[in-house]
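Might you be able to check the backbone structure tokens below? Thank you kindly.
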Amino acid sequence: VQLVESGGGLVQPGGSLRLSCAASGFTFSSYGMSWYRQAPGKERALVTSISNTGGSTTYADSVKGRFTISRDNAKNTVYLQMNSLKAEDTAVYYCSTFLWFRTYWGQGTQVTVSS
């Protein structure tokens, strides 16, 4: 299993970023996917999840209405569209999936929201 995130960077408050996570090594279309984030000095926290078909999504209250998770099963990729970014969204963002009785993580991508 390999999860590779991309798309992070520095953005001003109010700006947007789109993260991508390319998955390989498993049947992507059969598994739900999630995005987590870890801010400095804080524990890793769930941001959003999507079902294997994309028909069901959940969001942390802190990002509802601003972030959108989606997936393209033909490309084995899950996305996180982040709009109206705030300083408190600054964190390392991780793609994740749970299969074969364990959680798999990508290497993370840094998102910094600052003027």
Remarks:
- The two ends are 37 Å apart (CA to CA).
- Residues 37 and 43 are 8 Å apart (CA to CA).
